[in-house]
Amino acid sequence: MNQYSMVVLIVLIVMISTVIKARYRHGGNLAARGDDPDTLRMREELKTLRDRVAVLERIATDRENSLSRQIEELRDR
């Protein structure tokens, strides 16, 4: 093995290790990161929970007379 082939081999090893390291930093297998049914279900649940928290925040910051009205609206759901 001459010195030029050794340099090429070292460069090749460094390049491969850099690609592997970058792939693991960004979540491992990039092809398997699609939206599966569990991910979609969790996103819907998160959206629902955010909507509910927004309603609760609005109830907590409104005046007292509208508080009882909104509580009654929530009971009707």
Summarize it.
The chain has 77 residues and is mainly alpha-helical. The chain is 79% helix and 0% strand. The protein folds into two domains: 1-32; 34-77.
How would you characterize the overall build of this protein?
With 77 residues, the chain is mainly α. Helix content is 79%, strand content 0%. The model has no long low-confidence stretch (mean pLDDT 82). It has helices spanning 3-25, 37-61, 64-76. The chain folds into 2 domains: 1-32; 34-77. The N and C termini lie far apart (78 Å). The longest helix is centred in the middle third of the chain and has 25 residues, at 37-61. The chain contains 3 helices and no strands.
Layout of strands and helices, then pairs:
Blueprint: H1 3-25, H2 37-61, H3 64-76
Sheet/helix structural class: mainly alpha
Mean pLDDT: 82
Helix content: over 70%
3D shape:
rod-shaped
Order of helices and strands: HHH
Total count of strands: 0
Low-confidence stretches: none
Question: What percent strand?
Answer: under 5%
Overall number of domains: 2
Which terms would index this structure?
77 residues, mainly alpha, 2 domains, 3 helices, rod-shaped
